[in-house]
């Protein structure tokens, strides 16, 4: 999985773009986890439910939340 | 004179005046300034020659930190006493741009060279933000710098970035428009300090400018009024008479010593700076002793919120009110209508149940109907077992746990937990690097197992792999475990916790004995303690819930189908018979608990959900719950984790680890059961 979203790592605070899978992971290429390239902490990528929610709430939101952008 | 002097003396303005405020990128050559410039601006750039030189200056307008800026990429420079045209241009732009936001870009691997320039910028009284770029390379070379500690020492924002990998660039944007005056002062030999004071007398001069005069910066000569030159020369000669080394060398030496002192201070800065309640709370959360009661409090809140609220009220609502009374009833009635064969479902509390009797002597068509019926709504049916477990039992639990975990993440507690555990394990003599994978395990055990590659020896990696698989459940699994803990008494919870923590420390202690206790610390940027934002947590909960539904539910269905096949082929009762000496006699559990351990191989939370369902149905008393919960907690996390263990540690070692974990987890359960029985413990 490779994407071009920007993420903030909840553990070490790094902000980074994109998420690449660890090639050795058996779930590689088909999971929704994002791995921080610095500390290795894994967290969940936003899925379609959040994307849909964002679309619905876009007119009322001034800024995106800091966790995922 | 300083900046004012240069403004006054310089013949022309070098960059467009008016328009948005400037944001200057200044730094040593080859530290990635241009890459950062490209990221910050992302638009058409203006390239122009600096007046009177062939040096090219790149600038472009951009929105940085929500504000308009003219971003200027200055030529690389090693110091503010110029040795070339490039360096002179960089210095002149810096000093000719009062009010500009200045970002010093440095190479984290070459921190001394970076800080030498930082000190000089500070001496000119210019507020700035320090960007420690190429942090990815520094990390690979084991020369990473703690940006938070350095920021506290210097008193300016410091951001560790990698322009190449686009790390922390958004944070840099935020901090770039918040430069600060560095609160460090380099102490020079007494004669030089006197010279600085003498030059500055009656003039509005910064230390930087006075030092440049003392160091013999000839590029300044044209800008000094002719009548002042003799006096400044005399001061310089007088100071040089008192200092053995050439003044430029003496000044450079003092700066190098100041940099070394700064780096030493930065490593001890954090412990000293606690100014308010949040800092105090953040501090004790990381303390190897006081951090333990904080962790106990966090676990207590988790137990109450997830175990009592999530596993109590929320599961009651979904399982008893929605699934048992509606979803399962309607689906059974629908399947009974569609796939007809003679049978009578059990009725409990006026509600139709999955179990049934009277299905004997069926024709081939009825057998086919029975097959489809059982796959969906049989005792091991997709709806009556897999979806009931996944959605009615586990989902409310994991949602409440994800909420709680989101609060932990957003509050900044997790990195502090890592630091606290690191200190605790180091006291036991265990390598600090071994702790990080264990904290990562709270996110995903499978990935955390992969990160054991950072450990230097195979022994270390093996021990951490065992620790991860034994005692660190991933977030979804921890949620279900919390749910089972909910109805238990405080003593029962304390026993379970003691066994798990005791296991981690026992293995950790043994690890310390067999693994050389090399320091090998990790650097983790510690964010401030924050009040979590509900909107942010809600988004995280939704994202995790969606992930859980997509990843866990299919495995629940596969596990259920496996049970169905085993049941249909009479294998399940045989397995239960085989496991009976262990499960019934050894662990003191009902024979049906074998099913939970069997499907626990697929996912530990599915196994735990099976035990949780038995607990809710009153099939497990408190002692049985604690015993089964301990076994399932110490069990291998999931099939993916097992595959990674085999892959990373090799088949033979992987199987040995898996074998050890299975024997250890069941062994501990048997010991607990025997002890409870011997002392007639009821835990009620």
Explain this structure.
The complex is a heterodimer of chains A (69) and B (684). Chain A has 69 residues and is of the alpha+beta class. Chain A is 14% helix and 17% strand. Chain A contains 1 helix and 4 strands. Chain A has a two-stranded antiparallel ribbon. A two-stranded antiparallel sheet of chain A has the order 3-4. Chain A is globular. The C terminus of chain A is likely disordered. Chain B has a 7-stranded mixed β-sheet with strand order 2-3-4-1-5-6-7, sandwiched between helices. In chain B, helix 8 crosses helix 9 and helix 13 runs antiparallel to helix 15. The termini of chain B are far apart. Classes of the chains: A alpha+beta (69), B alpha/beta (684). At the A-B interface, strand 2, strand 4 and helix 1 of A face helix 5, helix 7, helix 16, helix 17 and helix 18 of B.
Mind telling me the C-alpha Rg of chain B? 34 Å
Main beta-sheet strand count, sense and barrel state of chain B: 7 strands, mixed
Question: What name goes with the CATH superfamily of the domain at 2-11 and 20-176 in chain B?
Answer: P-loop containing nucleotide triphosphate hydrolases
Q: What distance separates the N and C termini of chain A?
A: 17 Å
What are the defining features of this structure?
heterodimer; A: 69 residues; two-stranded antiparallel ribbon; 1 helix; B: 684 residues; Rossmann fold; two-stranded antiparallel sheet; disordered N terminus
Helix-strand blueprint:
The complex is a heterodimer of chains A (69) and B (684).
Chain A lengths: L5 E3 L6 E3 L15 E3 L6 E3 L3 H10 L12
Antiparallel strand pairs in A: 1-2, 3-4
Chain B lengths: L1 H8 L11 E7 L5 H9 L4 E4 L6 E9 L2 E7 L11 H11 L5 E7 L3 H13 L4 E6 L1 H6 L6 H8 L3 E3 L8 H8 L13 H11 L6 H8 L14 H14 L4 H26 L4 H10 L4 H48 L5 E5 L2 E7 L6 H14 L4 H30 L1 H15 L7 H6 L4 H6 L7 H14 L3 H11 L4 H25 L19 H35 L2 H16 L6 H8 L3 H13 L5 H13 L4 H11 L1 H28 L6
Parallel strand pairs in B: 1-4, 1-5, 5-6, 6-7
Antiparallel strand pairs in B: 2-3, 3-4, 8-9
């Amino acid at each position: 999985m490779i994407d071009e979203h920007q993420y903030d790592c909840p553990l070490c605070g790094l902000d980074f773009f994109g998420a690449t899978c660890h090639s050795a992971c058996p779930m590689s290429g088909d999971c929704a986890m994002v791995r921080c390239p610095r500390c290795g902490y894994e967290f969940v990528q936003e899925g379609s439910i959040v994307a849909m929610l964002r679309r619905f709430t876009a007119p009322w939101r001034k800024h995106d939340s800091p966790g995922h952008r | 004179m300083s900046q004012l002097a240069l403004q006054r003396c310089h013949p022309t303005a070098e960059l467009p005046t008016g328009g948005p405020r400037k944001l200057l990128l200044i730094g040593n050559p080859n530290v990635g300034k241009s890459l950062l410039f490209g990221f910050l601006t992302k638009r058409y750039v203006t390239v122009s020659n600096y007046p009177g030189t062939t040096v090219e200056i790149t600038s472009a307008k951009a929105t940085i930190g929500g504000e308009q800026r003219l971003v200027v990429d200055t030529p690389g420079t090693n110091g503010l006493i110029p040795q070339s045209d490039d360096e002179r241009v960089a210095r002149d732009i810096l000093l000719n741009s009062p009010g500009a936001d200045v970002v010093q870009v440095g190479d984290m691997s070459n921190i001394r060279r970076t800080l030498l320039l930082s000190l000089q910028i500070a001496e000119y009284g210019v507020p700035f933000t320090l960007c420690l770029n190429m942090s990815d390379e520094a990390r690979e070379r084991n020369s990473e710098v703690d940006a938070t500690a350095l920021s506290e020492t210097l008193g300016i924002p410091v951001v560790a970035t990698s322009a190449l990998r686009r790390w922390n660039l958004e944070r840099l944007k935020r901090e770039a428009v918040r430069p600060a005056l560095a609160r460090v002062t380099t102490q020079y030999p007494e004669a030089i300090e006197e010279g600085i004071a003498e030059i500055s007398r009656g003039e509005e001069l910064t230390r930087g400018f006075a030092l440049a005069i003392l160091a013999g910066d000839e590029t300044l000569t044209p800008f000094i009024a002719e009548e002042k030159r003799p006096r400044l020369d005399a001061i310089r000669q007088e100071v040089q008479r008192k200092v053995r080394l050439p003044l430029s060398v003496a000044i450079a030496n003092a700066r190098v010593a100041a940099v070394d002192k700064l780096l030493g201070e930065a490593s001890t800065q954090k412990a000293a700076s606690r100014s308010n309640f949040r800092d105090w709370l953040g501090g004790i959360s990381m303390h190897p002793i006081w951090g333990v009661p904080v962790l106990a409090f966090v676990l207590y809140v988790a137990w109450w919120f997830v175990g009592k609220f999530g596993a109590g009220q929320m599961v009651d609502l979904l399982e008893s009110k929605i699934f048992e009374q509606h979803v399962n009833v309607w689906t059974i009635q629908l399947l009974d209508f569609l796939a007809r064969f003679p049978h009578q479902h059990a009725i409990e509390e006026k509600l139709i149940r999955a179990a049934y009797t009277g299905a004997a002597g069926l024709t081939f068509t009825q057998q086919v109907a029975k097959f489809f019926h059982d796959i969906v709504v049989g005792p091991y049916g997709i709806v009556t077992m897999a979806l009931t477990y996944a959605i009615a039992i586990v989902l409310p639990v994991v949602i409440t746990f994800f909420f709680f975990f989101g609060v932990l993440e957003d509050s900044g507690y997790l990195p502090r937990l890592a630091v606290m555990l690191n200190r605790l394990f180091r006291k036991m003599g265990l390598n600090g690097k071994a702790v990080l994978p264990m904290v990562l395990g709270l996110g995903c055990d499978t990935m955390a197992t992969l990160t054991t590659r950072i450990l230097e020896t195979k022994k270390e990696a093996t021990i951490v792999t065992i620790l991860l698989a034994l005692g660190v459940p991933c977030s979804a699994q921890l949620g279900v475990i919390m749910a089972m803990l909910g109805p238990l008494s405080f003593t029962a919870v304390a026993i379970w916790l003691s066994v798990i923590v005791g296991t981690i420390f026992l293995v950790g202690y043994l690890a310390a004995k067999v693994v050389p206790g090399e320091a090998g610390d990790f650097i983790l940027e510690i964010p401030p303690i924050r009040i979590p934002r509900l909107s942010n947590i809600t988004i995280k909960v939704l994202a995790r819930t969606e992930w859980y539904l997509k990843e866990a539910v299919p495995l629940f269905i596969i596990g259920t189908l496996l049970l169905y096949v085993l049941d249909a082929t009479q294998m399940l009762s045989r397995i239960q018979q085989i496991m009976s000496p262990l499960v019934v006699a050894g662990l003191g559990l009902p024979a049906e608990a074998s099913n939970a351990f069997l499907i626990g191989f697929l996912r530990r939370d599915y196994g735990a959900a099976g035990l949780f369902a038995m607990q809710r149905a009153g099939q497990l008393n408190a002692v049985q719950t604690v015993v089964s919960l301990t076994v399932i907690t110490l069990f291998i996390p999931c099939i993916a984790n097992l595959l990674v263990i085999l892959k990373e540690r090799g088949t033979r070692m992987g199987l040995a680890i898996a074998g050890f974990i299975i024997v250890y987890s069941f062994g501990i359960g048997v010991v607990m059961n025997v002890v409870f029985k011997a002392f007639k413990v009821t835990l009620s």
